[in-house]
Design a protein that fits this description.
The protein is globular and about 60 Å long. The two termini are about 35 Å apart. It has helices at about 30-40, 65-70, 75-95, 110-115, 145-150, 155-165, 170-175, 185-195, 200-210, 215-230, 235-245, and strands spanning about 5-10, 10-15, 50-55, 60, 100-105, 105-110, 120-125, 130, 165-170, 180. It has 2 domains: about 5-195, 2-enoyl-CoA Hydratase, Chain A, domain 1, CATH 3.90.226.10; about 195-245, Lyase 2-enoyl-coa Hydratase, Chain  A, domain 2, CATH 1.10.12. The protein is built from 11 helices and 10 strands. It binds coenzyme A (COA). Coenzyme A binds near residues 106, 109 and 136.
């Protein structure tokens, strides 16, 4: 059974987690299918340049790990599941494609971790997020203890993770946990603005920010220089200059 509904709109795809009855909780099958789609849009054929990821229905973006499936898993199976979850979230970050989470309803545990692995987050005004794992006797296992402090700082991350509390949209915005409070249209609009830009440049800019964030400044600036260098030989750079001179919109080909 397909776990995601895929809706292609030009260079943007909308992926909807199709598990409304269990609040889009992440099962083994769902993570495997997510990994497949991430690999598909990250391959050499770059016909998809941005993905808006959301959940079916209005109640949940993703209620985290599928706790019913988890209850029947051995410790070894849980470890294998978490390895695949971590690898899939990492593949989202390492992709040249830009991922935008539209948090349309609650996002708890792995649901918030999935949103954290995306490049940008838009949250519905009625939605809530939280890394609630300590309430279940575990800790975030899909990168939450590492990605959250990198995004919002150690103090705020400890406030959320150690209490396991849920934050509403406005607090998520004020903490920097999300980029915008808005609706699906806002998330799609962001995606469409991004795919109008030169795709090689967008991918390199994403990786420059991610890869440089935890280097010392000199190393980070050297990394930026290396990534900048990669844009110099592209046809898109020349097209950008030509379009500017001709006072028209550039037509980027991703080469
Ligand atoms: N795994 C598996 N099933 C889940 C689930 C999860 N993480 N979260 C919700 N469901 C299921 C419920 O068991 C219920 O199934 P049922 O109809 O067979 O009883 C169904 O989804 C609807 O859940 P319900 O609680 O009735 O819906 P709600 O809209 O009132 O509340 C949540 C939704 C997400 C707030 C609530 O279900 C919840 O807190 N879930 C646990 C979230 C969590 O702790 N995640 C962290 C995991 S590390």
């Amino acid at each position: 059974m397909a776990e995601f509904l895929i809706d292609a709109q030009g260079l943007v795809e909308r992926w909807t987690i199709d598990g409304e009855a269990r609040r889009n909780a992440l099962s083994k099958a769902m993570v495997a299918e997510l990994a497949h789609h991430v690999a598909r849009v990250s391959g050499r054929e770059r016909s998809v340049r941005a993905v808006v990821l959301t959940g079916a229905g209005t109640k949940a973006f993703c209620a985290g790990a599928d706790l019913k499936e988890r209850a029947s898993m051995s410790e070894g199976e849980v470890k294998i599941f978490l390895d695949s979850l971590r690898a899939t979230f990492r593949a989202i970050e390492q992709s040249d494609c830009v991922f935008i989470a539209f948090v349309n309803g609650v996002a708890f545990g792995g649901g918030t971790e999935l949103a954290l692995s995306c490049d940008l987050r838009v949250i519905d005004e009625a939605a809530e997020m939280g890394l609630t794992e300590v309430r279940l006797g575990i800790i975030p296992g899909g990168g939450g203890t590492q990605r959250l402090p990198r995004l919002i700082g150690k103090g705020a991350a400890k406030d959320l993770i150690l209490t396991g509390r849920r934050v509403a949209a406005e607090e998520a915005l004020s903490l920097g946990l999300v980029n915008r409070v808005g609706d699906l249209e806002d998330a799609m609009h962001l995606a469409k603005m991004i795919v109008e830009n030169a795709p090689i440049a967008v991918g390199l800019a994403k990786h420059a920010i991610d890869d440089g964030a935890h280097l010392d400044l000199d190393s980070a600036l050297a990394l930026e220089q290396r990534y900048y260098q990669k844009t110099l030989g592209t046809e898109d750079r020349l097209e950008g200059l030509k379009a500017f001179a001709e006072k028209r919109q550039p037509v980027f080909k991703g080469s």
